[in-house]
TrEMBL record:
<comment type="similarity">
    <text>Belongs to the peptidase S8 family.</text>
</comment>
<feature type="transmembrane region" description="Helical">
    <location>
        <begin position="28"/>
        <end position="53"/>
    </location>
</feature>
<feature type="active site" description="Charge relay system">
    <location>
        <position position="250"/>
    </location>
</feature>
<feature type="region of interest" description="Disordered">
    <location>
        <begin position="1"/>
        <end position="22"/>
    </location>
</feature>
<dbReference type="GO" id="GO:0004252">
    <property type="term" value="F:serine-type endopeptidase activity"/>
</dbReference>
<feature type="active site" description="Charge relay system">
    <location>
        <position position="218"/>
    </location>
</feature>
<keyword id="KW-0812">Transmembrane</keyword>
<keyword id="KW-0472">Membrane</keyword>
<feature type="domain" description="Peptidase S8/S53">
    <location>
        <begin position="209"/>
        <end position="452"/>
    </location>
</feature>
<dbReference type="InterPro" id="IPR036852">
    <property type="entry name" value="Peptidase_S8/S53_dom_sf"/>
</dbReference>
<keyword id="KW-0645">Protease</keyword>
<protein>
    <recommendedName>
        <fullName>Peptidase S8/S53 domain-containing protein</fullName>
    </recommendedName>
</protein>
<dbReference type="InterPro" id="IPR015500">
    <property type="entry name" value="Peptidase_S8_subtilisin-rel"/>
</dbReference>
<feature type="active site" description="Charge relay system">
    <location>
        <position position="404"/>
    </location>
</feature>
<dbReference type="GO" id="GO:0006508">
    <property type="term" value="P:proteolysis"/>
</dbReference>
<keyword id="KW-0720">Serine protease</keyword>
<keyword id="KW-1133">Transmembrane helix</keyword>
């Protein structure tokens, strides 16, 4: 059985009776006391305002619906008041620190001196060498049946000019930069609850998710962390020749949310996870994730027949990546991605903004939007993403915020539905989950919350 929470109608403010007229003696006495009165009003008013904002999230109504996976139907029958424990989980402090907004610039984030060519035609090498380009790497994505070439640009030529030049030399061929991506984490928070507690999943079985297969394309993970020791995880890194894998901080946090032990907040501890690391340390010591790493990871993941893959990353649109993702979608690959933390409504983040990827934003509690989340027509659903207590390399943990940490909730539910054969396409998933959401913001689907806050959980025993 799954539970869906719905909000009661807002309570109207109590009316205030008009004061009676005062006679002259009373008015004089009032004038004498007004100084002290103002002080009392200020103090009481301040306390009242603080209390209002701290307690503005009211109890939700819990409704039980029949489902063998997660809820896919909205109903208002058999409503019952949520338990005190559930109310406490849903209460959230408005003054929690949300971390810093990302300063990542997707328009300038790409590997310098490199260009990617998809499905290069026969004899292309001689043509591009004559134009000053050189072949750096041949890549075959066997599962996606796609060939790529990573080429070097002529000395002194910008990546933009190189793409234009190659488009003339190889007309009709898909060519783009080796785009860089960032992990969609907004930074540390002061305090928080683990993923299960934040969403009210903490009463679920510690083996919830058994039989499911999840995917994660992120940074590396610390397999020795107590949250992950003994869990069903297979990990592989996809880095450029000569570069070392990036640190396992972000990937450890996301992996522990997805399949970590229940006492660490793992949403589906019984599931198997295939984790791909696409992040590496470049020649300048900077942590970067490239299109090549992402595409190699996608192809590897496609061979594992995962029920859903979590992409807590964000970057610019890319023609080569788009083509590969289209092929993955045709293979029935269910992809769920973070909308990004740039705080922008004018610049979509990819891969979340692709039509065949389900896009997830983050909320502060279950009512407010995460202030650094991107906005746009591509936003599909909202889930908790502020002050989530996450595992960190070395055995400890910390509270973090970002759309990265909202995405695993939707990935978990996508895997359950897809495994049951109920949502073979992204649009099927959107249709199913949209009936289990609580509308926030502008009525109906909007650019901030998408269809709304997904208020459902697995029916694990």
């Amino acid at each position: 059985m799954a539970k869906i929470a719905s909000a009661p109608p807002p309570q109207k403010a109590k009316s205030i009776a008009k004061p009676k007229r005062m006679d002259s003696d009373t008015k004089t006495l009032t004038t004498i006391l007004i100084g002290l009165g103002v002080m009392v009003v200020v103090i009481v008013g301040g306390v009242a305002a603080f209390t209002y904002f701290e307690q503005s999230q009211k109890s939700r109504l819990a409704v039980t619906v029949q489902s063998d996976s997660i809820s896919a139907d909205r109903t208002h029958d058999n409503a019952a008041t949520a338990s005190s424990a559930e109310q406490q989980r849903r209460m959230f402090q408005f003054n929690v620190y949300e971390g810093k907004r990302s300063n990542f610039n997707p328009d300038t984030a790409y590997e310098p001196g490199e260009v990617l060519i998809a499905e290069p035609p026969a004899g292309f090498e001689d043509k591009i060498r004559e134009a000053g380009f050189g072949v750096l790497e041949h890549i075959r994505l066997g599962r996606l049946n796609m060939s790529l070439v990573r080429v070097s640009t002529p000395s002194g030529m910008s990546v933009e000019d190189a793409i234009k030049k190659l488009s003339i030399v190889l007309p009709g061929v898909t060519i783009d930069a080796n785009q860089q991506y960032e992990a969609s984490a907004g930074g540390s928070a002061i305090a928080g609850s683990n993923a299960r507690e934040m969403a009210g999943w903490d009463t679920l079985s510690p083996t919830c998710g058994r039989g499911l297969v999840l995917g994660q394309i992120d940074s590396g993970i610390d397999m020795t962390h107590p949250a992950l020791v003994g869990q069903h995880i297979e990990h592989q890194a996809f880095t450029k020749p000569g570069r070392e894998p990036g640190p396992p901080d972000h990937g450890t946090a996301v992996a522990a949310m997805l399949v970590g032990k229940a006492d660490w907040g793992g949403l589906l501890p019984g599931a198997k996870l295939y984790a791909a690391n696409m992040f590496e340390i470049n020649e300048n010591g900077k942590i970067v994730g490239s299109s090549i790493g992402l595409l190699k990871a996608i192809d590897w993941m496609a061979t594992k027949h995962v029920d859903a893959v979590n992409l807590s990353i964000a970057g610019n649109d890319n023609k080569v990546v788009r083509q590969a993702f289209e092929l993955a979608n045709k293979e029935g690959f269910m992809m769920v991605a973070a909308v990004g933390n740039w705080g922008r409504a004018d610049k979509p983040a990819y891969p979340a903004a692709y039509d065949f990827v389900v896009a997830v934003t983050a909320t502060k509690g279950s009512e407010l939007i995460y202030s650094h989340a991107n906005q746009g027509q591509y936003v599909d659903f909202a889930a908790p993403g502020v002050a989530i207590y996450t595992a960190q390399p070395g055995g400890g943990g910390k509270a973090q915020s970002g759309t990265s940490f909202a995405t695993p909730y939707i990935t978990a539910m996508a895997a359950i539905l897809n495994n049951a054969g109920k949502t073979p396409t992204p649009n099927d998933l959107r249709k199913a989950l949209s009936t289990a959401t609580r509308d926030l913001g502008t009525p109906g689907r909007d650019d901030i919350f998408g269809y709304g806050y997904v208020n459902a959980r697995p029916a694990c025993k």
